[in-house]
Amino acid sequence: MSQLIVMLDKQILKRVAVKTTSITLGRHGKCEISLPDRTISTEHARITVIRDDCFLEDLQSTNGTYVNQQLIDRHLLEDGDIVSMGKYQIVFRSEQGLAVQLKRLSLHPKLMDTGYPAWLQIMDGSKSGYIIPLRGERIVLGNQNTGQVLIECSPQGSYIMRETGTMNNYRTRTLAPGDTLRVEEVTFQFHLKDHDANSSNNTA
Asked: What positions does the domain FHA occupy (predicted)?
């Protein structure tokens, strides 16, 4: 079950289990998550649960809703996302398994858009050969219980992998074309569009 951790000044105020299909966040006391702060709108944002996914939507708030410091209108929440509203932060935690994530994120190679700057290729398992496009947004694979990998694009265009193991060890590295990474029992290989194109030209 997913969970929302409400924080103020780095202190945990409460934990809210996501048990319903809709959760409203805002200044009003009738909101499921009430956040008393003048800079927060009466009904600021809403989380809607659709099957295994949780979508965060800004309700045309005055000061906006931010996820990982990025202003959003609608956002598919991933494990570890930090939602900012006024002086509050809400950390989203999900126990969603890798199999569910792959079902949602992966594409058959024939459906691949040539505009993707980078992607992960699944090397084994039932989704072997499928790809996960890296469009610039953050991608999270796995969860904190089984080990988690987070990949995000830096402003310079490089792809940074942050890996958290089950023993709370933490590693960060910049991915290079051909690098492999493993999450649970699945191996992934990193591909960069420009590099792959150059390799094809060199071998032609």
From this structure: 23-72
